[in-house]
Amino acid sequence: MSIEDDLDAVFKALANPVRRAVCDTLKLRPLTTGQLCDLFPEMNRCTVMQHLKVLEDAGLLVPVRKGRERFNYLDAMPIQAIHERWIGPHAAAAATGLHRLKQGLEANEKESLRAD
């Protein structure tokens, strides 16, 4: 699978509100599949498992078996990769622009104080 395919899988996984809610829940602590099913009573177990499979395929979920239970851990590294590729450079540019604006305003303030 290519990097582009990996990113497509992450975007697909995060495009669904239920899967985003699962990720939000798992960022607090890992939960068993049964606990996740209890948090989404409007869905049957098979539907919850399908959502978990999409998250796992995207690399956002790491299942760990402990005895008969399956604990689900959030892996935020794919989200970090998206941030580094698209958000980080824009945030840096915005911070640079704000810094230049601040410098310009301070220079104008100093000039107006000298003129008075």
Write up this protein.
- By secondary structure, the chain is an alpha+beta fold.
- It has 2 domains: 3-75, Arc Repressor Mutant, subunit A (Orthogonal Bundle), CATH 1.10.10; 77-116.
- The protein is built from 5 helices and 3 strands.
- Strands 1-3-2 form a 3-stranded antiparallel sheet.
- A hairpin with a 2-residue loop joins strand 2 (61-66) and strand 3.
- The chain starts with a helix and ends with a helix.
- 12% of the residues are buried.
- The mean pLDDT is 89.
Q: Assign the structural class, choosing from mainly alpha, mainly beta, alpha/beta, alpha+beta, or little secondary structure.
A: alpha+beta
The CATH architecture category of the largest domain equals Orthogonal Bundle
Largest sheet: 3 strands, antiparallel
**Secondary-structure element order, N to C:** HHEHHEEH
Specify the overall morphology. elongated
Strand order of the largest sheet: 1-3-2
Which band does the percent of strand residues land in? 5-15%
Quaternary structure type = single chain
**Total domain modules:** 2
How many DSSP H or I helices?
A: 5
CATH H-level homologous superfamily name of the largest domain: Winged helix-like DNA-binding domain superfamily/Winged helix DNA-binding domain
End-to-end span in angstroms? 66 Å
CATH class of the largest domain: Mainly Alpha
Model regions low in confidence, pLDDT < 50 over at least 5 residues: none
Q: Could you please say which CATH topology of the largest domain applies here?
A: Arc Repressor Mutant, subunit A
> Rg, please?
22 Å
Number of E strands? 3
Helix share bin:
55-70%
